[in-house]
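Possible race condition, two jobs.
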Amino acid sequence: MNKRKVGTEYEDMAAAYLEKQGYRIIERNFTCRTGEIDIIAEEKGFICFIEVKYRTRRGQGSALEAVTPLKMRKISRTAAYWMLRHQIPENAKCRFDVVGIEPSGVTLVRNAFDYCY
């Protein structure tokens, strides 16, 4: 199975998990020049930009550790572009969440990191 297909399966799993947690999915796999955001959703008045990471083996480190400072910067810039494109005011309530999927289960970290310049 190719990486994109595997990634889509894990993103489907994450989206279903988020919906059970009360999130409303707005968009998936938003891409632009600056990067990609796996899932954009709304929860309790927040626009949530969500990165999905999965690990099949523990030797690779945890899924949550895979969200590096460079990845945070790319997600932040992509989120800013998405908000501009959708005419969302700069002072709108938004946050960056991460869903980690490992053999042991799914972990959701709300407000996992702040906007990175």
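Job #2 (started ~2 s after job #1):
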Amino acid sequence: MITNLNILDNATLWVAISFAIFVFLVFKPLKNMMLTSLDKKIAELKHQLEESKKLKEDADKLFTEQKKKYEETLVKIKKLNEDAIYESKIIKKRIEEDIKNSLLRKEKGFKQLSLQMELKVKEDLKNEIIKKTLIYTEFKIKKKLKKSHNSKLINESLSKLTSHLS
């Protein structure tokens, strides 16, 4: 029995037993604290993961909407471009028709003016020829005919010409 008591006097043994009791007493609360901390960290990571998934879904949804709007805008731009080309063709055709009509009106006006001028020149020329003919005829008649006969002939000719001119 004496040997048993020697074991109790060993300081190393008591430090080892104290350490084991300390570890046993501290292990459970430390384990609980670590598990609680890890559970919180896991919950926080799960929450962040859910938020990230939600943000990704929102981003995908926004991307899809923006892509759809972009495609709609491209269609609208194409339609506007086609409409502009169509309108420009209509305007060009209208302008060409206006120019053609204007040229036709001017040509018609020019023809009418030329015809009027031609008729006036003919009338003036006719009147001038008649005047010159009268003067020349009067001169010739006076020269070749007797005076009494000459007056009578001139008067008759002048009256006939005057009636033709009127």
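The chain has one domain: 33-165.
Logs attached separately.
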